[in-house]
Amino acid sequence: MNGLCCSMCAPGNRVYWHCFEDASTTCAPCPASTYTDEPNRLTTCLPCTVCEENQTLGVKKACTQSSNTVCGPLKGFYCINQNQKGSCRLALKHSTCSPGQYISETGTEFSDTVCDDCPTGSYSDGTLCKLHTKCESLGKTTVKAGTETSAECSNGDVIQ
Length: 160
What we know:
Layout: E1 13-17, E2 26-29, E3 34-35, E4 46-47, E5 57-61, E6 70-73, E7 77-82, E8 88-93, E9 101-105, E10 114-117, E11 122-123, E12 130-131, E13 142-144, E14 151-153, E15 158-159
Antiparallel strand pairs: 1-2, 3-4, 5-6, 7-8, 9-10, 11-12, 13-14, 14-15
Protein name: TNFR-Cys domain-containing protein
GO cellular component, one term: external side of plasma membrane
Pfam families: TNFR_c6
């Protein structure tokens, strides 16, 4: 600074006065809702990130004087855009499986739900595959063959 080699302020602090010939740098703590996470020569601290208010992100770790807020996806969402320090910037809702499919991999904080088709002879509401009940095993005849969602027996009972 002005030809002098001034010391930097520690994380959580900012420059209050730059050094001059007879005095070293004077640092001051960052005020509320601001931070510095590295040694610095800043005269103002950085504003803490506010996690998106669009109901997809929440606070995983609150902002402190020496670290920024870490945002993460809310339950039912997964992160698709993360910064270098591990904070999520954008999250999407986990996919839901369609009737006739099952959840082969449950969605996580960083991955979407993976769906697969149920095998022939089974049905699903989009969660788990179950085998069709055979109408004959109930002493009835099949009126409508089993589909991905139901089957119909002789007295009009719709069974799964």
